[in-house]
Specification:
Helix content of chain A: over 70%
Number of domains of chain A: 1
Shape of chain B: globular
Distance between the termini of chain B: 35 Å
CATH architecture of chain A: Orthogonal Bundle
Number of helices of chain B: 14
Shape of chain A: elongated
Strand content of chain A: under 5%
CATH class of chain B: Mainly Alpha
Helix content of chain B: over 70%
Structural class of chain B: mainly alpha
Oligomer: heterodimer
Number of strands of chain B: 0
Number of strands of chain A: 0
CATH superfamily of chain B: MetI-like
Number of helices of chain A: 14
Radius of gyration of chain B: 23 Å
Distance between the termini of chain A: 40 Å
Structural class of chain A: mainly alpha
Order of helices and strands of chain B: HHHHHHHHHHHHHH
CATH class of chain A: Mainly Alpha
CATH architecture of chain B: Orthogonal Bundle
């Protein structure tokens, strides 16, 4: 990773010398200038960002509701539902994407942000529901029991009692969906047809697949692709693993 | 409305999305696997088991199948062992360990496409870091593009998986280890247990449920993983790194023969279902 950051500041000529260290005048910001101005990179960056944001918000609302329901209410066939949700993890995405392409085509959503968002949701929802359910299970029920007796409705209990306590877990869940969406290649490569919806992962793949690879520019684009995920990572780093594996600690 | 009814309603949005975009596509794909459906054609016909019969004589399919099984086995075993070693190393009080622990998960966080580019660049002939180091050590004749080398491309795919996931394993195992009460180890020490016995009879059982979860999830994720191979080699050189998901993708989006592609995907699904049923049996027996 350090190597690619280093490379992003070197000129094409100095990269090709094969030397590890080059004279100071060979370092440049040119790669970033080219990527940001010529290559339309900001547009793709914006695509990635709004897709990831939409996926995160929608999946978070849906999975919080579902996890809350599964964790706090007596529901018939609950264990079957949980197993069912978890078992969708084994459906090969490359298989699901074939009919999904046709559905999205028939909905006239091919090459739209909405289409990509709908597709990516299925990569995230099952794991997120399973993980948040485990997280909610680890929160004592005494508080929301008390709130229920005081006459709070289910949404009041969710918003004022459960959510504040579960905030660390929810941050990890949000982080998970943002990172999966941001890094997704499969769904975007099928649903996105033009530059209108292309994301950064698609673009760095194309840049690095060119006949004559300008490694300096590829490196700059790669660094820019990594940066947002690393920034977010620093907010959740210590809680990441305990959050991700919460479903495991107290399974059903 | 009863509380119970309301609880059920909370599940509706998530289950609806999964029904439309996961369950329905699954059945539709299974249906397609019995047809000669092609994205470029409007109509398709029922062809019975023809696609499945074709699989049996399709060399690329059989090769991909073998690669997939080898890849999952190698990756899971290595990740497990290296993850344990990493967790043990991180539990020692070494200087800089706190910083190390906090940054190490970054490899899991950055997009796969970016990881692949970094490794492709490092594997470049002449200008890549790997070859520069090898030359520095005096192995000039090893200079090559590692992902383009028939022998080395597959180990490099394994390496990509390890680089991404071993830290996740390490941190997860470490978290589970730290939840084991110290008194267990103290009691064992009084009884004269050696390091291996402590590991075998206290640590391993203590992190058992974490091991089961990590391995289960990663068997599914690794087997279904498409990005690493597709982005790094596309299955090449000459099919040396082809795995099932990549073959399904090529059949669907390069050849547009989605009927045939679905039958390959269906085989993948059946394999994972067998694995999943075995897993459920084992976990139920223990519960």
């Amino acid at each position: 990773m350090l190597w690619i950051i280093y490379t992003s500041f070197r000129t094409q000529a100095s990269i090709f010398t094969g030397d590890v260290i080059s004279p100071i005048e060979d370092y440049t910001l040119e790669n970033y200038e080219v990527i940001l101005s010529v290559a339309d990179f900001p547009a793709f960056f914006w695509n990635s960002f709004r897709i990831a944001l939409a996926v995160t918000l929608i999946s978070l609302v849906f999975s919080i509701l579902a996890a809350y329901g599964l964790s706090r209410f007596k529901i018939k066939g609950k264990n079957a539902i949980i197993t069912g949700v978890f078992s969708t993890q084994m459906f090969p995405p490359v298989l699901l994407i074939i009919p999904m392409f046709l559905i999205i085509f028939n909905m006239n959503l091919l090459d739209t942000v909405t289409g990509v968002v709908l597709g990516q949701l299925i990569l995230i929802l099952p794991f997120q529901v399973w993980m948040l359910k485990g997280y909610f299970d680890n929160i004592p029920t005494d508080l929301d029991e008390a709130a229920r007796i005081d006459g709070c409705g289910i949404f009041q209990r969710l918003i004022y009692v459960v959510l504040p306590v579960a905030l660390p877990g929810i941050m990890v869940a949000a982080f998970f969906s943002f990172v999966v969406s941001w890094g997704d290649f499969l769904i975007v490569s099928v649903i996105s047809q033009t530059q209108r919806t292309a994301t950064v992962t698609l673009v760095i793949q194309r840049l690095s697949g060119a006949l004559l690879i300008r490694w300096g520019q590829v490196a700059a684009a790669t660094v820019l692709t990594i940066v947002p995920t690393i920034i977010l990572f620093f907010f959740v780093q210590n809680r990441l693993v305990s959050g991700l594996t919460a479903g495991a600690v107290k399974g059903d | 409305m009863t509380e119970r009814r309301k609880g059920l309603l909370l599940l509706v949005p998530a289950l609806l999305v999964m029904a439309v975009f996961t369950v329905y596509p699954l059945f539709d794909a299974l249906r397609m696997s019995f047809t000669n459906e092609n994205i470029l054609r409007d109509s398709s016909e029922f062809v019975g088991l023809a696609n499945y019969q074709r699989l049996l004589t399709d060399d690329v399919f059989l090769l991909s199948l073998r690669h997939s099984i080898v890849l999952v086995t190698a990756v899971i075993v290595l990740q497990f062992v290296l993850g344990l070693i990493l967790a043990w190393a991180m539990s020692q009080d070494l200087p800089g360990m706190t910083l190390f622990k906090s940054v190490i998960m970054a490899s899991w966080v950055i997009p796969v496409a970016a990881t692949v580019i970094m490794f492709k660049f490092m594997a470049q002939p002449d200008i890549g870091l790997i070859n520069i180091i090898l030359q520095g050590l005096g192995f000039e004749d090893l200079n090559r593009y590692w992902f383009g080398d028939p022998t080395w491309a597959f180990p490099f795919i394994i390496l990509l998986h390890l680089w991404r996931n071993v830290p996740f394993y390490g941190i997860a195992f470490l978290a589970a280890m730290q939840a084991i009460p110290d008194s267990y180890y103290e009691a064992a020490e009084i009884d004269g247990a050696n390091a291996w016995n402590k590991f075998r009879y206290i640590t391993l059982p203590g992190i058992r449920s974490m091991i089961v979860v990590m391995v289960t999830i990663h068997v599914l994720w690794t087997f279904n993983n498409f990005d690493f191979v597709f982005l790094a080699t596309g299955g090449g050189p000459v099919n040396r790194t082809d795995v099932l998901p990549v073959y399904v993708y090529r059949q669907s989006w390069n050849s547009y023969t989605v009927g045939y592609a679905s039958s390959i995907g269906a085989v993948m699904l059946v394999m994972l279902m067998i694995y999943f049923i075995v897993y459920l049996r084992i976990s139920e027996r223990e519960a």
